[in-house]
Structure formats: structure tokens, C-alpha cells
Amino acid sequence: MSVSVPPRRADARRNYDRILRAAEVEVADHGAEASLEEIARRAGVGSATLHRHFPSRRELLQAVFHDRVEALCARGRLLTETDEAHSALREWLTDLTVFGATTRGMARSLVLDPNQSAPSSDGSCETMLATVGGALLAKAQRTGAVRGDISILDLLMLVNAVSLVTEGSTDAADAARRLLNLALEGIRFPEA
Q1: 3-state helix, strand, coil in the chain (%, to 5)
Q2: What distances in angstroms separate CA 90 from CA 47, 65, 108, one per listed residue?
Q3: How far apart are CA 127 and CA 191, in angstroms?
Q4: What is the pLDDT at residue 37?
Q5: Full DSSP string of 112-138
Q6: Residue 74 — φ and ψ, nearest 5°?
Q7: What does the radius of gyration of the chain's CA atoms come to, in whole angstroms?
Q8: What is the number of other CB atoms lying within 10 angstroms of the CB of residue 138?
Q9: Which of 173, 94, 191, 165 lies closest to 136, judged by CA?
Q10: What is the distance between the alpha carbons of residues 148 and 105, in angstroms, rounded to a whole number?
Q11: Crossing angle of helices 85-102/152-166, nearest 10°?
């Protein structure tokens, strides 16, 4: 599934696609702070054309990562069907953390607003992740495996923090797994 784009003229659609491809390369090379001017140059469009399609850096990054986030969400939806709710939540959070730590710019592009009390319904990457993660968390909480005072926004901010800290590590995937594992032990009820 790709980001929903309103119908456009053929040349406008080509420009959108070229900008998105150029942004994918630049973000992979330079992270979330990739130069918008360089993205426009690489796409063969002017800065105004880039901003017409993507009014903000955040909107451009959302488009760059949308398909990969959708794949993580599809995996999360499958995991909601498993019987072991805590393991399913932990596995999905680990997948998300490793993805954020090993995909340059991903974690920074999805930094959440700590003042937000609930996910919006705007179809953004954050909303998709909060919806799927929320279902996994709720199931784990219903089984008594995870404390009830934990919110999905708490967990997504934790995932983001671990991803941001480990993104530049020599072995980002292992570092992300290790730090997330340490943090997740704190959300479980102690074994009786």
C-alpha cells in the first residue's frame, strides 16, 4: 500500500514519483536531515515543486517510509492472532526498534509528540503504528502480562528513543535489541 495521493496530471504524478525516489536515496545516505534542495536537484525539479507536493519535511519523510511501516503493521496484525500476547507485543516492538535503528532517518521522522494523549486518525505512519501496537498492547494487558498503566504512546516513544540512540552504532540491530530488552523488562508484572 502506498501513501494516498489525490489524482494529478501525468506530469505532476511523474514529478511526485521522482521526488519520492530522490528522497529515498538522500534519506538513506544522509538521514532525516537530508537536504531538501539536493532532493529537488536529484529529482530534476525546483524547490517550489518539491514543496507543492510535500509542504513539510515531515510529510516527505512520511511518504518515504509509508510502505515499510505498512509492512510492519501487517506483521503486527498477524501477531495479534497468536496466543502468547506478551511475546507477540515484544516481537513486534523489537522488529520496529531494529527497523528504526537500521533505517537511517526512520526514527527521527517518527518522533512523537509527548503531549499527544492518543493517536490521531490521519493515516500517518505514527497513527498506523499506534493502532496496531495498541491492539497488541491491549491484548497483553488483558492477559495480565503487561502493566495496565502503560500506553502505546509510551512504548512508541521508548522504541523511538532506543532507535535514535542506536542508529549510528556499529551493530545497530544488536544494540537496539539489547536496549529494548532491558527496557521491556520494566513493563511486565513480576512473576508470582
Answers
A1: 70, 0, 30
A2: 42, 22, 22
A3: 33
A4: 96
A5: --TT--S--SS--HHHHHHHHHHHHHH
A6: -60, -40
A7: 18
A8: 16
A9: 94
A10: 32
A11: 40
pLDDT computed for residue 49 by the predictor: 96
Alpha-carbon gap, residue 21 to 180, rounded angstroms:
32
Give the chain's residues under pLDDT 70: 1-8, 110-122, 187-192
Q: Are 183 and 150 in contact (CB under 8 A)?
A: no
List CB contacts of 25: < 8 A, sequence separation 6 or more. 42
CA-based nearest residue to 62, from 132, 7, 5: 5
Cell of 137: 498492547
The CA-atom distances, in angstroms, between 68 and each of 93, 128, 137, 178, 189 are: 15, 11, 21, 23, 32
Q: HSE-up of 44 (CA within 13 Å, CB side)?
A: 7
Q: Which three cell numbers stand for residue 41?
A: 536537484
Taking alpha carbons only, the member of 96, 82, 62, 116 closest to residue 164 is 96
Triad 103, 114, 168: Cα angle to 5°: 25
Q: Which three cell numbers stand for residue 8?
A: 494529478
- Measured from the Cβ of residue 29, the count of other Cβ atoms closer than 10 Å reads 11
CA dist 130 → 10, 12, 20, 37, 151 (Å): 34, 32, 24, 32, 10
